[in-house]
Each structure stands twice: as C-alpha cells, then as structure tokens.
C-alpha cells in the first residue's frame, strides 16, 4: 500500500499543526507521511506543544515552516486546523483534497502553568482522536 501524504496547515505552525504532524507520523506512519506548515509561521515550535507530545511518547523535532515550501507537493489531503488558516487557505493551489477541522489554539490559554499545560494536553488528545478518525475515513 502506498503511503499517503497529508499537510496540516495552520497560521503560526507552532502548536496544532505541529502536534498533528507529529502524532500522525508516530501513530500512523506506516500509512501516512505528515508535514505541517503555516500561512504566517511563528518561527518556533511551542515548548508546551513539545512537552505535551513527549508525555505520550513522541519526540518531535519539527520546525515552523511557511506553506510555500510545499506548494508543488502532491498531497492526498490538506487539513486546515485553525479558522484563520481556513480563511487564508483558498489560495492553496496545490493538489489534494482540502478539509477543515478546527481545534482551539492552546497558545492563547490563560491561567496557571498547570492549567495552560492542561489545555495543550486537551488539544493534543482531540487532535489524536479526531485526525486519526479523519484519516481513516479518507482511506475508505
């Protein structure tokens, strides 16, 4: 079976799209090759996103990237994971079916360190559950 390619697109490419990329490559890597990018990359991967991934055994070595790096890649699927990227994404002219699945931005969480970390964990868990379901449906 051919490994399919998925792009996770967000605005900053520092949290949600990075977590989606890491989770898919770690959990579904035999069937999917995932990358992520942003329409306005932050230039870093959020440390709390990396910590949330490490808690579930994923050591992610990602970098924040501009979507233009992938303009000519023949993706099977392009998934926007934040509302602003979905609005900016109509300029996506590359191949691949585009779907939108928004997740809250954990970088905007407020509260104590532990409360903020819990928001990152919650978003991580939602991404793991929802993106796995989405990719499984796409394969059918």
Describe the structure.
The structure is a single chain. The protein has a single domain, classed as 3-Layer(aba) Sandwich (Rossmann fold), CATH 3.40.50.2300. The chain is built from 4 helices and 4 strands, in the order βαβαβαβα. It has helices at 16-27, 47-55, 83-88, 113-139, and strands spanning 4-10, 32-38, 77-80, 97-100. Strands 2-1-3-4 form a 4-stranded parallel sheet. Strand 1, helix 1 (16-27) and strand 2 form a beta-alpha-beta unit. Helix 1 (16-27) crosses helix 4 (113-139) and helix 2 packs across helix 4. The longest helix has 27 residues, at 113-139. The two termini are 13 Å apart.
Q: Give the helix tally.
A: 4
- Provide the number of structural domains: 1
The name of the CATH topology is: Rossmann fold
Rg value: 14 Å
CATH top level assignment = Alpha Beta
CATH architecture: 3-Layer(aba) Sandwich
Give me the CATH superfamily: Response regulator
- Would you report the number of β strands? 4
Q: Write out the strand line-up for the largest beta sheet, numbering strands in chain order.
A: 2-1-3-4
| Shape, principal axes of CA atoms | globular
